[in-house]
What we know:
This protein is α/β, with parallel strands linked by helices.
Amino acid sequence: xxxxxxxxxxxxxxxxxxxxxxxxxxxxxxxxxxxxxxxxxxxxxxxxxxxxxxxxxxxxxxxxxxxxxxxxxxxxxxxxxxxxxxxxxxxxxxxxxxxxxxxxxxxxxxxxxxxxxxxxxxxxxxxxxxxxxxxxxxxxxxxxxxxxxxxxxxxxxxxxxxxxxxxxxxxxxxxxxxxxxxxxxxxxxxxxxxxxxxxxxxxxxxxxxxxxxxxxxxxxxxxxxxxxxxxxxxxxxxxxxxxxxxxxxxxxxxxxxxxxxxxxxxxxxxxxxxxxxxxxxxxxxxxxxxxxxxxxxxxxxxxxxxxxxxxxxxxxxxxxxxxxxxxxxxxxxxxxxxxxxxxxx
Length: 345
């Protein structure tokens, strides 16, 4: 980890001059301050604002970073982390990246400045399979725990763990539910392919199809993303391409809601004409216009499990590792036994 001494040696300055420059002291020239700041950034220097308080060896601070904190899924995970942290005398610093990769990295740097002892992250879904968070955490020897999904290269790093729900089994269960209700022609609305949770979800769906000896129809797979608009767009494409279907398996509840919205606009009734299932069982699932059949994720328990995974590793009881939590099928009004679709003309 870069220190004031490293910066001073690189620029042939004193440690005191470097320290003053970074603190914007008035007796240091503007040109020198700019040189010091650029070199500090190049070396990856993070100022230790809590050095005095850390003489006892612990800041008692934990960092939690979400793409957004204004949804029930994130708040439930946060609740679980806070419950366990508070019980053991830790405080939680929470930040949101607002789905912006630059803000995500900036938030982590600010948490490093506060000397958090561990970082819990629901990471952004990127186009590439790797995450720069891993390199930053490794550089500063910061324990990193991913929530819900994780980047593909996470297993290559030390001091990294992740807590996820069993998306493979959950997707298999909800697809099997439709198959057992007589549905043989299913659309599949997938999440981003680089997200581990989306990959597991699709694998579970395909496994259920294979077990029932139903064909995997590539033309019935549509990329929907993770939100309501993505579900709407996937449903519009499916209808335009006239792929036969009686049921729709969606990667999450928001996508399912978007699909149902478009179906309703085109005169389809759920579940009389089409069965639609989601995944997650957030607040919207039970209280939607058509209560949604879905898979319940252990959201608060996921937060608790993430804290305990880190805390056990801190105590030396075990290394950070993967923890997979069980899921539960919740059957509601959006799914029913298959009937021939009477699509409006």
